[in-house]
Amino acid sequence: MTHSPLRPPTMADVARLAGVSHQTVSRVLGDHPNVRDETRARVQRAIEEMGYRRNSSARALATRRTRTLGVVASNTTLYGPASTLFALEEAARAEGYLVSTVSLRKLTVETLSEALDHLSDGGVEGVIAIAPQRSAVEALAELRRPFPVVAVGTGSASTVPSANVDQYLGARLATGHLLAAGHRTVWHLAGPEDWQEAADRVSGWRATLEEAGVEPPLPLRGDWSPLSGYRAGQELAGWVGRGLTAVFVANDQMALGVLRALREAGVRTPQDVAVVGYDDIPESEFFAPPLTTVRQDFSAVGQRSIALLLDLIEGRTPSGPTRIAIEPQLVVRASTYPYASPPGPAPG
Amino acid sequence: MTHSPLRPPTMADVARLAGVSHQTVSRVLGDHPNVRDETRARVQRAIEEMGYRRNSSARALATRRTRTLGVVASNTTLYGPASTLFALEEAARAEGYLVSTVSLRKLTVETLSEALDHLSDGGVEGVIAIAPQRSAVEALAELRRPFPVVAVGTGSASTVPSANVDQYLGARLATGHLLAAGHRTVWHLAGPEDWQEAADRVSGWRATLEEAGVEPPLPLRGDWSPLSGYRAGQELAGWVGRGLTAVFVANDQMALGVLRALREAGVRTPQDVAVVGYDDIPESEFFAPPLTTVRQDFSAVGQRSIALLLDLIEGRTPSGPTRIAIEPQLVVRASTYPYASPPGPAPG
DNA sequence: GAGGTCATTGTGAGCGCTAACAATTCCTGC
DNA sequence: GCAGGAATTGTTAGCGCTCACAATGACCTC
After folding, report:
1. pLDDT bucket at B261, cuts 50 / 70 / 90
2. CA distances from A335 to A154, A265, A275, A287, B133 (A)
3. Is B282 a residue whose pLDDT tops 90?
4. By the CB < 8 Å criterion, does B75 face chain A?
5. CA distance from start to end of chain A
6. What topology does CATH give the domain A65-165+298-322?
7. What residues in chain A have per-residue pLDDT under 50?
8. With contacts defined as CB-CB under 8 Å, which chain A residues touch B144?
9. What CATH number has the domain spanning B167-296?
10. What per-residue confidence (pLDDT) applies to A136?
11. Which residues of chain B does A98 touch, with a Cβ-Cβ cutoff of 8 Å?
């Protein structure tokens, strides 16, 4: 055995074994240039032998850097937020940072404030807030916080630095696609009013119609769930034959509900009504029929937002804008065009 | 202004303002009993005024406790793992712990080892590993690690302490339900071979059939994705009319693919073939038809596993078994019984 | 009013590391 | 063969907190 099993070995223990000072050990660990090869090797061997690892708390205390970032998320398994979470962690780890997460059942000023306190007590150097609800963004802006915060999923409503997929553009792609296919107008099933991204999608949809000289119908509202989509779908079915031939649904899960309601009402998709979703969840390709939808690059959101946050933490002038927009992409399938995409892996 | 904006205030700063020693401030913060009310109030006021917060690194160094737990997860947005992740964080936070996550694209000995190192460098006191793949459990067992580890999602294969939903029982519920409905036999679309939970579901299915005196057919294999379910569904469709009337699918997403393949083959569900899934993802209720499935209580998994981990960290004798099993629950819908559950919120 | 007890507060020594500087050793070149 | 500089190593002082113990003072008791 190499050392007392009671306490993990310290830098001084390693130094003693290697016959050097603790500072030399520190230099080896910190990859400092001015250490003789022979010495370095001896220290390495001692480290190896004792299974030594630096104590992160002591290091953090001395350097005033914890190399930890916080993430505040809501605890939904919605595809978008969950994907963003993973992308954030991966990007942060690539930069050598640890990520601590707090997931909230609902985002209010109180819960957000508690979450930031919890993270602050954990010593995070900065926080990414996945805050799609407008109220959360407002709360974020008014909270005093001792570290930089970057918001994500806030659509166009960011009063704080942010990285977002351009929802307005995504909605334009979806709506434009339907108009180009010959539909005279496009209905819209929107997400919750409180979500800025939902509002942005409404704006994009409305603007596209207006530019085409079409008076937009009144949008319906859902809550992202398949159930709300199903209910809206029943209502939409009642308008078939009275000018409704195309619907842009604000997410794929609601689109699933719409498809079911239409089918049950004897309405065929896409022959009678074309449907476009949003998100491109893995299941969309297997809906009946496979769903045309808008894909968002969450991985890019993660990387860009982490890069921005690190710039802010380290006091650098951000290398780009502090409100980052990422382009979404339209994925065409059979729900808008009967011969599109037979089931199978995407080509290319 | 209350203090130099350059450095956050320290305990000594607060002490000076309140006219006491730093130790008294520490006592107030630590809710020590022997502090005069008047003093306590004065200190509180000083803390408030300076916006003081304890430095977590210094605290961790002095107490040798970081109050941080690590979680290793794979970066899928699969419903089960993602739900478990949130449940874990919530349970840990309730106990005053911060949670740092590492999400891996694939779980191998190398990636797992790196993840544990990364967390170790972050000073975690223990780790929860969401390790559904058998290889990951094995890797976990052989890695030397300086802190306790509790595995989750490992099915019955836990060589380390663990908390799991009883997959064997879940499969029995599903299979038994189909037999009770009068089906002569039940086919099975299993998950990947490497997943212990998939294997446990196979065992439960097989045992139930054998007890009923039925020779189990050869199970099909999928990879959890809707696409793999679709392909298996096409194969299953070929057996309709030759004894196939019921299928137990190892997760809901594959069941979605199966349903579509059957529908395209002109096979009706549940009249020609009944289908049971597993997981009860939020969408299941809106499949065509709504899916009978097995629900798992991830929140319980989170709470129990965190409690177990904290017992291990604090050197207590665990208050319960170190291999915790949680009961799943069957949810009956129209995919096995044509008049079950009209769409709408679940009753009760 | 001396001695004892208790509640309250202060003091000093680390926790294990890094940063700044001091000391030493090793080369150069002439 | 020795000054001068660079390379290498050691020494010291914190980082901001908690713990153990010492000191103070208030309040009793006889």
Report:
1. very high
2. 29, 16, 5, 9, 36
3. no
4. yes
5. 56
6. Rossmann fold (3.40.50)
7. 1-4, 341-348
8. 51
9. 3.40.50.2300
10. 86
11. 100, 118-119, 121-122
